[in-house]
Write a structure and sequence with these properties.
260 residues; mainly beta; Porin; two-stranded antiparallel sheet; 13 strands
Length: 260
């Protein structure tokens, strides 16, 4: 079972990749690792070092199984911002499309942060939870250490569909911190899964995220997902990632297909 560090160290955008089963969810690739590989492909393909990753729009189009090929294209390269699109093909069928924004820091007099605080203690205050041991858990969860820190649990029939969990990689050594964060940030099931009372299919359609800290430090990060609206078989969820100091280092939103 290759860790994140081992998987990315052997990845070559020119060769494609047969993703190990341990990084899959059902019949497709785990969305976090697919997105992290897309970012890595853009970094490898670019002629020189890219500015820090600032934001991404990811569309999951079809099953990402078989041989995965990544095709990055620079859309525009300005003084501060580089826009790169990455198409991901699975056995020659389009599986995902990423739109990535890399941006250099600029001096600015405008500085504010209204994220607020969450009433959550640090990761040492909570116990490990073996998500991978649950019958409905996808294979990729075995790559993470998880400690629920409040909110609801999957399949609990919760009236408030919020998931709150401390998460860290088993091994992310020598991985770009932003890439490691992308690979982790989607590790929790969609928040609407907390409202389920029995297992049923659920699938992310789109994932938009922004990195507020382009070089997040530390191993443990607090993942929060909240399904703000669900109707007609679709859920709209808000996502946050915080470091151990409580700072929001990443924000995101997902559109999720619900089959229950």
């Amino acid at each position: 079972m290759p860790t994140l560090s081992e998987l990315l160290s052997s990845f070559d955008v020119g060769q494609g990749l047969l993703l190990p089963d341990s990084w899959r969810q059902g019949r497709t690739a785990y969305g976090g690792i697919l997105s992290a590989l897309g970012v890595t492909a853009a970094m490898q393909q670019h002629a020189g070092p890219l500015p820090p990753l600032r934001s991404a729009q990811v569309t999951f189009i079809g099953p990402a199984a078989g041989l995965l090929r990544f095709q990055p294209v620079v859309l525009r390269e300005g003084k501060s911002v580089v826009n790169i699109a990455v198409d991901v093909y699975a056995d020659d069928k389009l599986a995902a499309r990423l739109s990535l924004v890399f941006g250099r820091a600029r001096e600015s007099a405008i500085v504010h942060d209204f994220a607020g605080e969450l009433p959550v203690e640090g990761p040492d205050a909570y116990r490990d939870f073996n998500m991978a041991a649950l019958p409905f858990a996808p294979a990729f969860t075995s790559n993470f250490q998880m400690r629920p820190a409040g909110g609801a649990m999957p399949l609990s029939g919760a009236e408030v569909p919020e998931l709150l969990t401390w998460v860290r990689h088993l091994d992310a050594r020598q991985v770009d911190p932003a890439v490691a964060l992308v690979a982790m940030a989607d590790a929790m099931p969609p928040a609407a899964f907390a409202s389920f009372t029995a297992a049923a299919p659920i699938s992310s359609i789109t994932w938009n995220f922004e990195l507020l800290d382009t070089a997040p430090q530390g191993e443990w990060f607090l993942l929060r997902s909240f399904s703000q609206h669900a109707r007609d078989g679709y859920s709209s969820q808000d996502m946050q990632v915080r470091d151990v100091q409580g700072r929001v280092v990443m924000r995101g939103r997902q559109s999720v297909a619900v089959f229950a």
